[in-house]
UniProtKB/TrEMBL annotation:
PANTHER family: ENDONUCLEASE V. The keyword Metal-binding does not apply. GO terms for molecular function: endonuclease activity. It is found in: Cytoplasm. Keywords: Cytoplasm, Endonuclease, Hydrolase, Nuclease. Pfam families: Endonuclease_5. This is Endonuclease V. InterPro entries: Endonuclease-V.
Length: 251
């Protein structure tokens, strides 16, 4: 285990839907200490997983999976890659919305644990608080590793943008890096802002930045915007996806 993960409580990934639901309910109600952006440069790990190309349907249990974690230093010029790690193996469940942790959680955890240095925060290609049980894979991976986390996806899971009249008040300016002009709208679940739709580059479709473990939706939006380089997808996720796809291609 990485030194930075040594304080994480023991975590066993659930193996069935009932145990997953129980774990998600527990994590959704937890109140871990909040995380904030460091003043200077810090380490971000992008985490992503791909499965067999061309498999029938959305994906079945036992499909081969390739997970990648790419460690970047950010906050001092363009993101700089520091290290990367991989994990491969059989995926634990079929693909199904809302229970992605059964399928991908253990391999993503193994990839993060294989990094030579612990990141300060995880940026995960998955949902966080925007989830039927308020604890998607991005949040669970943070809890499993003991690291703060956010999620970045192309669309919301269950949260929706409220009508203008019902829109919750914005809590204030985004943390540093955050460009309010790039934040299109809050995404709300049960009256709480759980994510933001943000446009990382002019003329491109927006992405969704999700609150995760020890993070708010505002911090997620700022981190997603602050780690984007020359693509629609924030750099940590983009590089992790590229690495995972290269692993799949070689296999």
């Amino acid at each position: 285990m990485l030194p930075g993960m040594a304080n994480a409580p023991p975590f066993t990934w659930p193996g069935d839907r009932a145990s997953l639901a129980a774990a998600q309910d527990t994590l959704a109600c937890a109140s871990p200490p909040p995380w904030s952006l460091p003043d200077g440069p810090f380490l971000v790990a992008g985490c992503a997983l791909v499965s067999t190309r061309g498999a029938a349907g959305a994906g079945g249990s036992g499909d081969p999976g390739w997970a990648a974690a790419v460690l970047l230093e950010v906050g001092a010029g363009p993101p700089r890659e520091v290290a990367a790690a991989d994990a491969t193996g059989a995926l634990g469940a079929a693909f199904e919305t809302g229970v992605l942790a059964l399928r991908e959680g253990p391999l993503l955890h193994a990839a993060v644990a294989a990094l030579p240095r612990a990141p300060d925060v995880l940026v995960v290609h998955a949902a966080g608080r925007d989830h039927p049980r308020r604890a998607g894979l991005a949040l669970m991976l943070g809890a499993a590793t003991g690291l703060p986390s956010i999620g970045v996806t192309t669309r919301p899971l269950v949260a929706r943008a409220p009508d203008v009249a019902d829109r919750p008040p914005h809590p204030g300016p985004l943390p540093r890096w955050g460009n309010d002009a790039c934040v299109l709208e809050p995404l709300v679940l049960d009256g709480a802002i759980v994510a933001y739709r943000v446009r990382t580059r002019a003329g491109l479709r927006p992405v969704v930045a999700h609150a995760g473990w020890r993070t708010t939706a505002e911090l997620a939006a700022a981190l997603a915007l602050g780690t984007t380089a020359n693509a629609r997808t924030p750099e940590p996720i983009r590089r992790a996806l590229e690495r995972a796809r290269r692993l799949r291609a070689r296999a």
